[in-house]
């Protein structure tokens, strides 16, 4: 679709299914419990900036939007220690999961499944 003309784009959009619904269902859900203080303290340590790219959205948008990423997935290890957490912008957090990144603790670098590597630009606790 990158090189499509306007007519092709209009046909493409017209064929999309725009329907939706809301279903009510009752489920049992496993809930992970971990100290929010650990995450809040790490976010403050990095001034609500991404440890990879350094981005912070507070100046432009007036909100602190960074996320905590567990290097070893919390769902598998329940490891919520600071040495298992990095503070990332939403984009880098999503890339960690989608790109199946692993962390080389000696080099302080994330290695994506395709071989691309990103080094922490800020590291005060790992």
Task: Describe the protein.
- With 126 residues, this protein is of the alpha+beta class.
- It has a domain at 35-119.
- It contains five helices and five strands; from the N terminus they run H-H-H-E-H-E-H-E-E-E.
- A hairpin with a 5-residue loop joins strand 4 (109-111) and strand 5.
- It is extended, with a radius of gyration of 19 Å.
- Residues 38-94 form the HNH nuclease domain.
Largest sheet data:
3 strands, antiparallel
Q: What percentage of the residues does DSSP assign to strands (E)?
A: 5-15%
User: Helix- and strand-based class?
Assistant: alpha+beta
What ranges have pLDDT less than 50 throughout 5 or more consecutive residues? Answer: none
**What is the count of DSSP helices, taking H or I runs of 4+ residues?**
5
Radius of gyration: 19 Å
Structural shape: extended
Number of strands: 5
The average pLDDT is 92
Helix content: 25-40%
Element-level helix/strand string: HHHEHEHEEE
Organism: Salibacterium salarium
Domain HNH nuclease: 38-94
Protein name: HNH nuclease domain-containing protein
Pfam families: HNH_2
Give a quick precis of the structure:
By secondary structure, this protein is an alpha+beta fold.
Key structural traits:
5 helices; three-stranded antiparallel β-sheet; alpha+beta; two-stranded antiparallel ribbon
Set out the fold topology.
Blueprint: H1 6-14, H2 36-45, H3 58-61, E1 67-70, H4 74-77, E2 85-88, H5 90-98, E3 102-104, E4 109-111, E5 117-119
Antiparallel strand pairs: 1-2, 3-4, 4-5
Domain HNH nuclease: 38-94
Protein name: HNH nuclease domain-containing protein
Pfam families: HNH_2
